[in-house]
Each structure stands twice: as C-alpha cells, then as structure tokens.
Amino acid sequence: MRRPWRVEYKGGIYHVIARGNNKEYIFRESIDKGYLVNQLKECSISIGCRVYGYVLMDNYYHMIIQTLDKKLQEIMHQINNKYSKYFNGKYKRVGHVFQVKYKLCFYCPTQFSRTSTTIGITFFR
Q1: Which one, out of 14, 50, 64, 100, has a CA that is 20 to 30 A from the CA of 121?
Q2: pLDDT band at residue 26, thresholds of 50, 70 and 90?
Q3: Which CATH architecture has domain 13-112?
C-alpha cells in the first residue's frame, strides 16, 4: 500500500522529524551530530532552503526548515541519504539508518513568525 501524497508548498515552513530505524541511535558520537549539522549548512547554501532550528537527540532529530527552490522531499532525500552513507560507512554496517520516511507538520508563515520570536531561532544563510 502506498503512502498518502504529501502536500508541499513553495516557501513552506515545516517541522520535520526523522528517527533511527528500530529506535536505534543515529548519533553514536558528538562528531556524528557535527556531520549532520554540516550537512544542514551545506544544504541551506547549495539547495536553497532555510534551517531555522534543530534538535539532535541520540536516536532522532527535529528540524524547522523552509523550502525555497526545491521540494522538501528532495532536500530531505539529500540530507538523510548523505548521512546514511556516512553513518553506515563509519560503523561498517548496512541497511536503513532511518526508520520510515520523515514525519512533518506544516506551519503557515504567519503562525511561524509569531512563535519564532519567542524561542529565539537562528538560521543558516
């Protein structure tokens, strides 16, 4: 059975969640977290998106991201695919790193602008 089609908007702001396969750790060392942060910075420049904030836990991450030129699925594919190859290569493992396709919530820009000032979000650009 196919997943339901995801509605995406150009310039949309999304809360994205990606969790490790079988709830396993996707960050075993702090350098792994640094690698993902560098991927987010690189993506924000090369693909054209804005990362407003993120939280990296041992077995999942949250991110607030705004799409500009590319679709969210293309951005997330690049981020998660590069990280998976890095992680599997470093720890000499094979298979999925992330459990399922990322989860997301859409925020309308006016709703987000009210909340972003209260929590002090910074972004890469």
Answers
A1: 100
A2: very high
A3: 2-Layer Sandwich (3.30)
* The pTM of the whole model exceeds 0.85: no
Residue 29 near residue 123 (C-beta atoms within 8 A): no
> How many angstroms separate the CA atoms of 43 and 28, rounded?
23
Best CA proximity match to 14, nearest among 50, 55, 56: 50
DSSP at 22: G
User: 50, 123 in Cβ contact below 8 A?
Assistant: yes
Residue 58 exposed, middle or buried by CB count within 10 Å (0-12, 13-18, 19+): middle
- Domain limits, the chain: 13-112
pLDDT the model gives residue 109 = 58
**What's the pLDDT at 107?**
66
End-to-end CA distance of the chain: 39
| Token duo for residue 46 | 């090369």
Q: What distance in Å separates the CA atoms of residue 1 and residue 43, rounded to the nearest whole number? A: 31
